[in-house]
Structure formats: C-alpha cells, structure tokens
Design brief:
This protein is an alpha/beta fold. The chain is built from eleven helices and twelve strands. It has a seven-stranded parallel beta sheet with strand order 3-2-1-4-5-6-7, with helices on one face. The two termini are 17 Å apart. The mean pLDDT is 89.
Length: 364
Amino acid sequence: MTGQKNIRVLLAPLDWGLGHATRCVPLVRLLQELGCEVVLAADGAVAALLSNEFPGITIKQLKGYGIRYSSGSSLAASMLRQLPRIFSSIRYEHKWLDKVLGQETFHLIISDNRPGFYSKHVPSVYITHQLLIHSGKGAWMNRLLQQLHHRYIKQFTSVWVPDMQAQPNLAGELSHPAKPLVQPVYLGLLSRMQPVRSEISYDLLVMLSGPEPQRTMLEEKLLSQLSSINKTVLFIRGLPAHDEAVLQLPPHITVHHHLPAAALQQAIASSQLVICRSGYTTLMDLVRLNKKAVLIPTPGQPEQEYLARYMQEQQLFPVLLQNEVSIAKAIDVSSSFPYQQLFTVADFERYKLKIAEQIGQLNP
C-alpha cells in the first residue's frame, strides 16, 4: 500500500456504547500504516478506550451525545424525550468541527454515526451499518427514520458500511434496505480481533456493553446468579473510564472493568462460552474469532433485537431475552445450537484495499 504521509485525518465515533469506537480501531491502525496522521475527537469512556488502544495519539475533546436508554421497554418514548438533546448535539459537533478546521488543516473527516460531523470544504465520510433504522414501531416509522437519517447522510462525500455487499451479510436489512436512498461503499467486516489459539481457562465469559441503565441492570442480574454457580467466570463490565476496583465476589469470578483489544482477544479465545449483548461490533468480533456465544439484546433497543433475531435465523448465535436470562438456560441453549460459520478471513480483509483506494484519491 502506498504511504500518504501528508494526509491528516480527523475521526470521531459516536458515544452510544463503545462499539462505534472499537470498530474504528482497525481503521485507525490501517490509516496509520498508510502513513496518515490520525487525530481523534471524543470524550469520556470513548476517549479512554481509544487512548488505551493508541497511547500518545492526539484526542481532541468533543462532547458526546450523553443519551441514556430507558429502564423500561419503550426506546421510542425515551428517544422522543431526548430529541432536543440529540439535535443540539448534532448542531454542536458541526460548529465544533468548523472551528477546528479554521485552526488546523485536515484532508479527510471520518464520522462514525455522528450526523453533524461533516464539512462542505473537506471530504467527509460517514460510517454506519444502519441505512435502515429499526424503530420498533413498524415499517412506516422505519421508513420515516430512514428518510430523516438520509437528510444528514447526503451531506457527506461518501458512506462506508462495515458489512458485506451481498449474501451472506451480518446486518441484514439494516445495511441492505429494500428501498435504498444512498449508494454506499461496502467495506466488508471490521474487527480489531485476530484469531489466536488458546487453551480454555474459563467456562464462561460475560462481556457487558452499551448505555445505562440497562448495562447495570443486566450486570446485577448475572452477578447474582454467577456467585453460586460452579463455573470459572471472567466478567468484563464494559467500563473503560473507571478505575479498577475490588468487588466482593467469590474466587471463581474474575472481574475487569475493561480490557484493551489484545487482552480481550485472549480472554475470548480462552473462554468456552461468551454471554453478551447483540451490538453490531460485538457480533463482528465474535464471528472473527469463530466463538460460541449466547446473545442478550438490550431491552427496548430495536436494532439489537433485530440483529439478535437475524443471528438466530442464520444459525450464527442463539438468543435469550433479558427477562428470561439464567446462566443454566444460556448453557443449555448453547449446547444444542447448530453454530454456523458463514464468513471467511478474506471478508475481514476487504476494507484494507477499499480504504487504501479512497485515501489514494485525496490530494494533500
């Protein structure tokens, strides 16, 4: 690949959970390998995660959206109440970017699902796997949200979708809507993980992620069950901005607030079964490592609920709902599930040539 040593890239991931940041990790690595100077824009847990992955990298403080999901079942009602904050955040990030571009030169802007993070004067890329947004309120609302999303997407120079262009694919109709409004670049699958051979050290690996309060609600439910089970457990809380603290738990449970990519990769490889949310980045990581898992979608989050159903239909991973979760049931469901492997190593390498081609078209 041709080096582009004069190219400066500014990249900002959304802060709803950590998946947007973690799927940007292989992109940042590739851009650096291509000789680009990458600057990140983030704060809070996202900034902490990216700082751990890329020590010394410049991170500009850009406020996140700070969205919380409801403790009840209606995401739509929760999002409706927070719409003023969402639109305010979109306006804020656009003004923030304009100010930065008035002070520094960048040759490419990359936004992972931040709709206001674009410039009319600099090539701007939007990364999303949701060309169709599931609302939980039916096809008419999904279409309305798709049209609203498109009003922002069309401001960008290009759209990158981390999924396969044809079947099999991982995001289903989210990334392949029946009535597409844009012509995206399908990157193939993205994961910061690399398959490794490892002896099994843990019976169960629990990986939590996603916004509050649902993350904490599932944590409390699982820890109460795991304390009395005769299994070796590795429990990753998904809290990278927290200091490591000692929880009063039995010795068969090892707890970490967060693990960087290399340590997490080893943890997944050395675990017999993974229990986790059905976030899209998590699914890409599990497929990359060819690991058995049981998915627990975040209640009231239509995207995760759809992805979980789609995974089960493709026989990739089984699903349990949060209100019916028990460790015994998860183990039983996993033992009888016909796990399929539909993707190849090449599917996780496609993005390199596609992005190198895009970078090669820039004029520093």
